[in-house]
Write a structure and sequence with these properties.
192 residues; alpha/beta; seven-stranded mixed beta sheet; five-stranded parallel beta sheet; 3 helices; globular; Trimer_LpxA-like_sf; repeat; Hexapep
Length: 192
């Protein structure tokens, strides 16, 4: 797969299931399925996990990153992971629309991050709407939370366990519930 495909996808908001690019996307999906199966079968050292994730994402994963398996993604090539990121077990990243985790992000177990949706119109429903997700520096996503397409979770913010985030979360806030709502501000020391 070439970087051209990633660049093309980054510039798209909607892909019809009838578009020729879907064939190329499905080739990547098959390769990612092979790699995630390898990743999740048997024990892997942290170095081995990072190595396979580097293959999946097409980017070198920093040695400070820790990902506990099982970990799943569908496309894989539109995931960007910063330094000192921790991803707990049983997470699913649907990343065709793009997912970025900045430095020092914590992702709890069973978190789902979605960057793809489908149109309501049944004639187009097999196509996909692409909306990137960004989790900013020092954010913490609690166990079982779902981050919906197009969301930005602000720097230092916390998403409560089991929450469904349907709107952007500002910096330095705690959000929780279904749908997630503001709970309180996070007090931040100036040296973070």
């Amino acid at each position: 797969m070439s970087m051209d495909l990633i660049k093309i996808i980054e510039d798209m908001e909607f892909i019809s299931h009838e578009d020729a690019i879907f064939t190329e996307i499905h080739k990547v999906l098959e390769d990612t399925l092979r790699l995630t199966t390898e990743l999740n079968s048997g024990y892997k050292t942290p170095e081995e996990v990072r190595g396979i994730l580097s293959e999946i994402t097409g980017n070198k994963i920093d040695c400070s990153v820790q990902v506990l398996t099982p970990f799943n993604t569908d496309f894989g090539r539109n995931i960007k992971i910063g330094k000192d990121v921790f991803i707990n077990k049983s997470c699913m990243f649907v990343d065709l629309g793009g997912i970025e985790l900045e430095d020092n992000v914590l992702i709890g177990p069973e978190v789902k991050i979605l960057s793809v949706n489908h149109p309501l119109d049944p004639r187009n429903r097999r196509g996909v709407i692409l909306k990137s997700v960004k989790i900013k520096r020092n954010a913490w996503i609690g166990a079982g939370a779902i981050i919906c397409p197009g969301i930005t979770v602000g720097e230092n913010s916390v998403i409560g366990a089991g929450s469904v985030v349907t709107k952007d979360v500002p910096d330095n806030c705690v959000y929780g519930g279904v749908p997630a709502k503001f709970i309180k501000c996070v007090e931040v020391e100036s040296d973070i």
